[in-house]
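Example is below:
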Amino acid sequence: MREEFVQQLSDLLGDDQVQTSEEVLRSRRHDYWVLNHLRSWRQEPMEMPGVVVQPQSAEQVQSVVRLAGQEKVPIVPFGLGSGVCGGVQASADSMVLDLGAMNKVRDIDETNLLGTFDAGCNGLEAEEAVADSGLTIGHWPQSIAISTVGGWVSTRAAGQFSTAYGCIEDIVYSLEVVLPNGDLVQLGKAPRAAAGPDLRQVLMGAEGTMGIVTGVRLALRRKAETRAVSVFHTSTLSAGFDAQREIVHCDWLPPVMRQYDPTEARRNFRDFAQDDHGLLLMVHEGPSARVDAELAAVGDIAQRAGLEPAPDAAAHHWMESRNHVPTWEDLFDKNLIADTIEISATWTQIESIYDDAIAGLRDLEGIISASAHSSHVYRTGLNLYFTFVSAHEDSGTMEASYLECWRRVMEATARHGGGVAHHHGAGRLRKDYLVHDLGANGVSLLRTLKTALDPDGIMNPGNLIPDA
């Protein structure tokens, strides 16, 4: 990184907002993608950014972006680094734009049910702030305590309560964004609009390649009056899927609907699983009368589908432990590499994808576990969350095996017409598979948008956009 550029940044922001220490550069060099942690664990040489800047306002972001544009310095946005697809991977000639200092709750509007946050606001802190007013965002990703509101937008995140409350695109009211040329735009103004294309969608899921999200206004909800759970054993995958489809087609919307195959039921619910059965658990919340009616209706549907009641304690166990996961390094130390892969498909596609992907994983040398669960349900279909674990005596074979697992799941999904990314974004991991979702012409359109907004290609280069 050129010293002159670093000095220009210091002149703009002050020395305390411009970091060049090895400790800071090392901590911002990548996100939580498995392969970056594997390379670090193996002590492989890894590039660090040339500088980390920590702006405190949208105006400061504008100044920094304009300067980087003039000097043609790549910009890598950074929230809290919880992404798992390689969306953050800084090079020595790049500047990491760390939004962690932009972490304020700007406003909570209890009448219009709107909350406005800096993009760097911690997700759990945002939720706790609105909870003090008897409200909720209703967005509960597993990473809520280690992710930012802006990160949710940039990766098109989905929370665990999405079946009733929607994913982030259903919750965003408006966005404040700094474009690659330094201009500030406000996208979204009213409860609904027909004023041309919805430009918010260009930034949602763009992963820092189209601009920098600096502020987010979200549509809030009142806290639920009552919460209840229901749990069922599923003798077959089909029986559980049929029950879930009937529930949502009848317009019942338990916020949480999760179905585990037998392998995951045994692993995650050891004290509650039954023989070779899977498990379907639901969380119901809202006005007491509606929750009571939903519980009764769901019970009837489950019985007709041949499901057997399971202990409610299984759902309470999930609620208590849902955000606890081992670190990647814990697994590496045991000679294991693992990951989760989320996809989605229609009701008529999903079982074929499951069968094909699981067979492909289990056929791979070193695989000791391949399983899946569904966790987000829609009228038209649902998602699957595949988990694989691979054992290796030589850590040098882990990366190739990991990428082969991903290839098999991505291609199995595409063969049966599903979508290759449900909610973790694309990053560097998925970008070569986007053609399955967008088609060749769609990928070309994505590149056209990128070029129009960022003609010099300085915004998070190498991420998301498939190589030409």
About this structure: The chain has a mean pLDDT of 97. The longest strand covers residues 336-346. The chain has 17 helices and 19 strands. The first helix runs from residue 3 to 13.
